[in-house]
């Protein structure tokens, strides 16, 4: 098999030059790629589907997030493949092919920002832009062994980005190292340079780590040892997040399924959180794209066609309860973490699944994934997925969450932790060999 030198990451290549400026620009010399959900003046925004591209005209302006990167001194080299209509976390696209996971060949790259993650993981660009509604930055970052940042909801403009579900849509980004991640974030978020603020606590919810197939010690010990060295072990605390959420988010009772309570792989309150998120996502997707779907009847791939059909049938029932869940969860997690607390969770419940894994086999994995992904999704908190090397030759990641609006604090923290984490990873990998 001849390997695509671009790993199948790109939809089309073109060069957008950075602004020329006599001043030292923060992203000068860096290259980036853009998910095919962002408008670029003169190009059709394809949204991962040829029927969409066929029925839409070229954009007449460029998304502010892309412009900010160019104004910051970076050069764009093209648009990347994405899952159709941003409605998957797998990264498989039946029309344009599936970008190759450079960190785990034969495994899915994760979606829907699949091409953007692969372009960074394969060292084709220095960073890339994607979007995260249900997990589309965090999942491919974890699977491709790179950093992925989902900012606080509303912190980065989504103008010029095709909406999926506005209550959850965010513009996120990928990088191979935390310094680049931080540099990009400071431009996108328009943040001043600031000193590291010492975190007040690192909360490890033990129930969340029971959802992953990777031994929890392999994920948490690397981080905990780094935290102990830098800030002292007294700030590391343990909790049962599911019980806390159940007690503090009363509106969730509308979504707690009796059938799920006895299943080993679920945390009932987080499974309910996931149900609320996906219901509101379906409803907003229908409002955004239902008319186009029913008129055009696009050719959609397996899994996605079923989800889109389900979305088009969604009614307004219980939507107000979903909004209550969002409000209650944000308040509850803000109380739990305070201004400078960190919540530590697995990004996903295990290593990237194999390509073309049977959908029914993936159902348990998907359910556990959304229980974890919905925490930041529903609360609107910022989250960063941090690569932790390999376990059984497959990429492992952990996620750090901070309260809404704490993006600069979180970016600085990851950059500060990284050198210690690298040393602990090397030790852990020697032990696992």
TrEMBL record:
Superkingdom field: Eukaryota
InterPro entries with a match to the protein in the record: Amidase_CS, Amidase_dom, AS_sf
Gene3D superfamilies named in the record: Amidase signature (AS) domain
GO molecular function, one term: hydrolase activity, acting on carbon-nitrogen (but not peptide) bonds, in linear amides
Domain Amidase, first and last residues per copy: 23-189, 319-411
Pfam families attached to this UniProt entry: Amidase
Family: Belongs to the amidase family.
Listed name of the protein: Amidase domain-containing protein
